[in-house]
Amino acid sequence: MDFSRNNFEFLPNEVYEFLRKSRSNSLGALFSKIPDEDKTEMMQFVEYILEKDFAFLVDENEIQLFPEIDMRWDDPAILTNCIIDFDTEPEDLKDYRSFLADLDNYGCENIQFRIYRGLGLKKLRELLSFLDETAIHRIEIIINFSEHIKQYLRLLNEFPRINDMVLHSANTEKIKVKRNGQVFILTKQIVASEQCCGVISPKYFNFHQSHFYESHHFNTCLNRKISVDTRGNIKNCPSLKKSYGTIRNSRISDILSNPEFCKIWSLNKQQIEDCKVCEFRNVCTDCRAYLEKDTSLKKPANCNYNPYGISN
What would the pLDDT profile of 255-307 be if each residue is shown by its tens digit? Predict the structure, then answer.
């Protein structure tokens, strides 16, 4: 993992032990243990990682200046992210405003609205105006395509907290990045319900350092997440079946006091079959809603990658 460039690169498995031992052995000592016929190839590897700035040479007495990476992960927020789905337009947004205010009290800063159809721009603008009074500062909107594109662009100008706006079910593919970093996307992909979720693909890999650390301890999709489905049910994810209440009759404190709700947060890749040996396990966002088999310890159903390299 190259955090500085938000990328990754494959290295041969046999090189791992060489790198690991390089913290406690000099380069000369390491090469003295390598068979003569392998030394040229290993030296080429060392030159390669130095050229790529993946490593640098230090004197032996300087090693102590580079301690092991601290892999702990934490966040000051009790809840870090939320998904709210809409399929019809609510008569009023009182329950949603109450839920969002409650969400703000738990430190949540990231929210995604997925609008399959039915929620008009007037109600959406009302929600966004309410969020202006909260600490929720990163908003993503996935909404059904309309020919009135200028109205959506005006929303971006009016609400700078919107980081991404995706118009699904469009007749074209287009990406526009505004000067302030806001992203406007048109996509032909049809997002008709929560069942459109759960795709495992390299384009969803996350190469940020915080995500990498979090993945060692928690589920990178569901950790500290709370969601509201199209019927107002509060869940870990709208795509999951289990509901813990509704926005009409439940407070977030009631939901968080249920140990079953928080239990899935700690289901990391090391506990999941296939995933635990996958080289992409610490960059993949793991969906627990649709599984290969109906058990929590199986890999996602929409993952077609076999880390063992054997065709099914």
Answer: 999 999 999 999 999 999 899 999 999 999 888 888 877 778 889 988 989 88
Separation CA 104–CA 82 (nearest Å): 11
On whether both 189 and 55 belong to a single domain, the answer is: no
Q: Model's pTM, two decimal places?
A: 0.89
CA distance 250 to 275: 35
Q: CB pairs under 8 A, 24+ apart, for 266-269?
A: 266/217, 266/218, 266/219, 266/223, 267/218, 267/219, 267/222, 267/296, 268/215, 268/216, 268/217, 268/218, 268/219, 269/215
Instruction: Report the CATH number at residue 242.
Output: 3.20.20.70
Residue 281 belongs to a domain:
no
- Answer yes or no: is 296 within a domain: no
Residue 39 belongs to what domain range? 14-65
Which amino acid is residue 306, in one-letter code? Answer: N
Separation between Cα atoms, residue 76 and residue 95, nearest integer Å? 26
